[in-house]
Amino acid sequence: MTSNNNWHQPDEKLLEPWKYILNVPGKNVRGKMIAAFNKWLTVDPTKVKEITTVVAMLHTSSLLIDDIEDDSTLRRGVPVAHAIYGLPSTLNTANYVYVLALQKCMRLNSADATHVFTQELLNLHRGQGQDILWRDTCTCPTEEQYRSMVLDKTGGLFRLAVGLLQSFSTNKTNYCPLLNSMAYYFQVRDDYMNIASTEYFANKSFCEDLTEGKFSFPVIHCIRTQPEDNRLLRILKQKTRDVTVKKHAVEWMIKCGSLEYTRAKLNDLYKECIDTIEGLGGHTALQALLQTLHEQIEDVSSATSASDAMAHSSSCTPPSSVISRKKSSSPNTSSIAASSSPSSSLIDSKESPLNNNNNNNNNEQEEFSTTRTIGSESPLRSGSTGSFDTL
Fold first, then answer.
1. Fewer CB near the terminus (10 Å): N or C of the chain?
2. pLDDT category, 5, cuts 50, 70, 90?
């Protein structure tokens, strides 16, 4: 049996797939969230540093597995790790880092911390498993079932981070309602941006959720409000990479009012988060983080609102906010790469290295460009808004 004085020493060579993604940084929202919550919890900085490392290890290793489970091709604008290191090595590395994170948590020498770690990691895997089950059996969940899954899958790591902090704090305030509201907001926002944001296309691929066959928030709304029309279910089942087919799916969701419904839900969730923070006494950094995220939605929404009207007034009119076929040069046409400019907003990351895209996504980008009919700017003037997984 290993004693506390003889902890496992990792083989650094085995960690290369994990370090590959770690060295392409996201927006570090979880790290910023830990720092923000510590304004309330006032935990010793040494412990905060260790907890931040544990959460980063779990998050980054989960991306390796997530990309395999979703058959993704890009992560943070570069090829996914398993496309470079292979499935066996990438899977083993991800699981290895999970257990290394558990060891680091155990070294904090707190039974409460270890309990939080275990329970929330179980919740996270339950949520991820439900998401995969619905996708693989082509079973559309209800909105409430979706919310429950999100509170496990996305909320698990949020609650884990704050729960670890609280294990070393005298402040025992129940922050779960706020964390759950934030998790639900972040995931619905990600679902919306996956469809509406061309910045997302730059970092991953055009409407990747459709290629995954994922039942995202707007997809669920569209299917459940149009039960007699099976086109979206059929498209999800195919897991298509055909941009023309995916574009048609987006147009159908716009026509059914699903993007408008998702925007309204995001406005409600944003208000819920802000009201909860104010009820806890207010928090400038958390409110600023949420405000920045929400302003980016509003930037995209201002461009897609006109598209909604176009879709309602004509049959499947190509929306200006999604990818359209290249035509002759236009002053309102901007390249995908041009929409990935860095900025100094609170959660912005560096420009995605798009030249490293793999062949599947190169094919999409060579044939299609981002076309705007409203103004000449990218809708995300204040920076990138990739997947919640990259936040």
1. N
2. low
Q: What is the mean pLDDT of the chain?
A: 80
Take residue 385 and report the two structure tokens written for it: 């808004």
Query: Is the separation of the CB atoms in 37 and 162 below 8 Å?
Result: yes
Give the pair of three-digit tokens for residue 276: 């909860």
Output the six-digit token pair for 227: 């039960």
Please return the burial class of 109, using the count of CB atoms within 10 Å of its CB with bins 0-12, 13-18 and 19+: exposed
How far is residue 77's CA from residue 352's CA, in Å, rounded to a whole number?
5
Q: How far apart are CA 326 and CA 71, in angstroms?
A: 27
Task: Return the HEC string of 154-209.
Answer: CHHHHHHHHHHHHCCCCCCCCCHHHHHHHHHHHHHHHHHHHHHCHHHHHHCCCCHH
> pLDDT tens, 291-306?
999 998 877 765 555 4
Better pLDDT: 240 or 368:
240
230, two tokens: 């099976």
- What is the b/e burial string over 280-315, where b = at least 16 CB atoms within 10 angstroms of the residue's CB? eeebeebeebbebbbebbebbbebbeebbebbeeee
CA nearest neighbour of 338 among 326, 356, 351, 327: 351
Cα 351 to Cα 384: distance, rounded to the nearest angstrom: 8
The string of pLDDT tens digits covering residues 195-247 is 887 555 544 568 889 999 999 999 999 999 999 999 999 999 999 989 999 99
Identify the pLDDT of residue 305: 53
Q: Other C-beta atoms within 10 Å of 63: how many?
A: 22
